[in-house]
Amino acid sequence: MDNWRIVVVDQLMDNYAYLIIDERSGVAGVVDVVEADRVLGAAEREGVRIVAILSTHHHFDHVGGNEELLAALPPGSVEVFGFRGDAERIPGITRLLEDGEDFALGSLVGRAVFIPAHTSGHVAYYFAEAGAVFTGDTLFAGGCGRIFEGDAAQMMSSLGRLAALPDSTLVYCGHEYTQTNLNFAATLEPSNQALAQRRRDVAALLKEGRCSVPTTIALEKATNPFLRTQSAELRASVRERDPSAGDDPVSILAATRRLKDNY
Ligand SMILES: [Zn+2]
């Protein structure tokens, strides 16, 4: 049996929170919380005790439930993790993490990976033993987040750090945007067979009322347009739609993001 378990918790219309559970100790961390009651309900169903909130970034739909969750649990029993440079925007933060800093969640070890661009203080949480990464609104299944507080070069660098994780790494992202993301991707790479297969797979999952998460780093590299600036078909499609786009990878990513913003 694995020493860890990850439980998806639906939030709002299309947000996901996640319980990452240490089976050895029965404690859990929750990645991003906006509806505290649903997270508490999931922890109760799973029979685990929440000892940490892992906030990926400061947007309301990711931290809006921090204070309510803290108020519902014994005082001082929950650590709130976030990026040190964004401490003033993470409600209830107690543990200010540097890029690359390791921390304990029960017997599991997590690591903060600084991935700015969607916001300037965004982090991912990587658990090597579980082979899982929580990517918030930076890397989505089949897409990436909007660039609100950075630029395309920064997004490329942040996505590159995630893409450098082992291919088998499970990717848990902040929203169920996958189908729309893949529909957009197919407009740029109609000949990508892995993408076509993935669209069928995701459609089948959603039809059954299931979620499309987790994905893997390998699947993202094969199908996610924001990790595929080297694809000749994608580059040609992007430059056909946006003749002003340069041919270097950052320009292609920037133009892809603009096309997606208007999709
Ligand atoms: Zn966000």
Structure, explained:
- The chain is of the alpha/beta class and 263 residues long.
- The chain has one domain (4-261): Ribonuclease Z/Hydroxyacylglutathione hydrolase-like (Metallo-beta-lactamase, Chain A), CATH 3.60.15.10.
- 34% of the residues lie in helices and 25% in strands.
- It has helices spanning 36-46, 60-63, 66-72, 152-163, 178-188, 193-207, 217-223, 232-241, 249-261; strands at residues 4-11, 15-22, 27-31, 49-54, 79-83, 95-97, 102-105, 108-114, 123-127, 132-136, 139-140, 143-144, 170-173, 215-216.
- Helix 8 (232-241) crosses helix 9.
- The chain is globular.
- The mean pLDDT is 97.
- Bound molecules: zinc ion.
- The site of zinc ion has 5 residues, from loops.
Proportion in β-strands: 25-35%
Small ligands present: zinc ion
- For this structure, the quaternary state is single chain
The CATH architecture can be named as 4-Layer Sandwich
How many helical elements? 9
Strand segment tally: 14
Helix/strand structural class: alpha/beta
Q: How do the strands and helices of this protein lay out in sequence?
A:
Layout: E1 4-11, E2 15-22, E3 27-31, H1 36-46, E4 49-54, H2 60-63, H3 66-72, E5 79-83, E6 95-97, E7 102-105, E8 108-114, E9 123-127, E10 132-136, E11 139-140, E12 143-144, H4 152-163, E13 170-173, H5 178-188, H6 193-207, E14 215-216, H7 217-223, H8 232-241, H9 249-261
List keywords for this structure.
single chain; Metallo-beta-lactamase, Chain A; binds zinc ion; 6-stranded mixed β-sheet; 14 strands; 34% helix; 263 residues; globular; 9 helices; alpha/beta
